[in-house]
Specification:
Layout (H helix, E strand, L loop, with lengths): L3 H9 L6 E6 L2 H15 L9 E5 L5 H9 L8 E6 L11 H17 L7 E8 L9 H5 L5 E4 L5 H14 L6 H10 L4 H15 L6 H7 L4 H13 L3 H13 L4 H23 L4 H7 L4 H11 L4 H20 L4 H12 L2
Parallel strand pairs: 1-4, 1-5, 2-3, 3-4
Helix pairs in contact: 10-11, 10-12, 12-14, 12-15, 13-14, 15-16
Length: 344
């Protein structure tokens, strides 16, 4: 398993693999990597004729394999991309869905024994949270394909990307302001792009200041709250408690954590109610004042709950808030009890 820097070196040396498998939590970053390989391999004048794309959660691997077998047009190579490759995740869900996943995974294994030389197959699977790790299936493919774990950008790499985004939007930002921005923003490319756009618009042609950044940036803990609720949806209390402890260690107060969890459950309730009434992602993001990307993630998260369970969890939030305000018992114990009750 390699990282993006190692992949970039291989591509620049024209050391191409027949199959690339990407995994990570930032889909935008993964898509950028896929685009980098595609643009390095295909002539842009013939890209439409030598590029195919399939939804891995719906397409059987036989169809994908057939596309890989066809010859490229006016090119040495063709590229086949498989996104949302849920057959790379460890089994979960219904027996029928697991049967399809296992069949596709076995066919991929067979395909990799003798891949066609004219095709580069690119497969990617997006993690549900930042804390998810590569599945056992992905690990098994490490020696048969080039597996790339797309980690979050950090340090100078993140600063370079953000600086390019600001400059591309025609905005000025100093070095210390750039460092502050990178320390405050959630490490997700879609969110980063959105926050850059907001700041550029807010500054309105002036150089971006630290005051602007602190005024406009959301708190980083919002992403942790999303992940905490996500683990509660999976009834994974251990991982949820790990995030709770991280938040407390960083100095977040327990009443504020409960407030943020309550807000998340309320948003999920309204989103689930909206989707059941036929509302689109665009309408929901407008009504609830959410970025479309965030709204899409929350729609996915809301599907993990029933309306009954969301109502019950909101009631538990209100009960726990009363306990925190009216008793002198340990706040940490009370919120831990609350979290256990949400998964019962």
């Amino acid at each position: 398993m390699i990282n993006y820097a190692e992949l970039e070196k291989k591509i620049k040396k024209h050391e191409l693999d027949s199959c690339y498998i990407f995994c990570g939590s930032d889909e935008k970053l993964i898509k950028d990597h896929v685009e980098y390989i595609t643009n390095s391999v295909l002539d842009k004048n013939f890209i439409d004729l030598n590029y195919s794309k399939f939804d891995g959660s719906k397409t059987d691997f036989e169809t994908i394999s057939d596309a890989c077998e066809t010859m490229p047009f006016m090119s040495d190579k063709k590229v086949v991309v498989v996104y949302r490759a849920t057959f790379l995740e460890d089994n979960s869900g219904t027996k029928n869905s697991n049967d399809l996943k296992n069949k596709n995974f076995l066919m991929l294994n067979e395909y990799l024994k003798n891949p066609p030389p004219q095709c580069i197959l690119i497969i990617y699977y997006t993690f549900l949270s930042d804390r998810e790790k590569p599945s056992n299936k992905i690990k098994k493919l490490d020696k048969k394909a080039c597996v790339i774990k797309v980690d979050k950008l950090k340090g100078e790499s993140l600063q370079k990307i953000c600086k390019n985004l600001f400059e591309g939007a025609g905005a000025k930002i100093g070095k210390s302001e750039l460092v502050l921005f990178c320390s405050q923003v959630d490490n997700n490319m879609n969110i980063i792009i959105n926050e850059v756009e907001k700041l550029v618009s807010f500054a309105n042609g002036k150089e971006i200041t630290k005051k602007d950044i602190l005024a406009m940036m959301p708190q980083k803990s919002e992403n942790d709250i999303f992940n905490l609720v996500d683990f509660l949806s999976q009834k994974n209390i251990k991982r949820a408690l790990d995030i709770l402890n991280e938040l407390i260690y960083r100095g977040e107060k327990i009443p504020f954590i409960l407030f943020m969890v309550t807000r998340q459950f309320n948003l999920l309730f309204n989103i689930k109610l909206g989707t059941e009434n036929g509302k689109t992602k665009e309408l929901l993001s407008s009504e609830l004042r959410l970025h479309p990307y965030v709204c899409e993630k929350m729609i996915s998260q809301s599907n993990k709950f029933t309306m009954k369970r969301l109502k019950r969890n909101i009631e538990l939030c209100l009960e726990t808030e009363k306990v925190l305000k009216s008793t002198s018992t340990d706040d940490k114990t009370n919120i831990e009890v609350f979290m256990v009750k949400t998964v019962m």
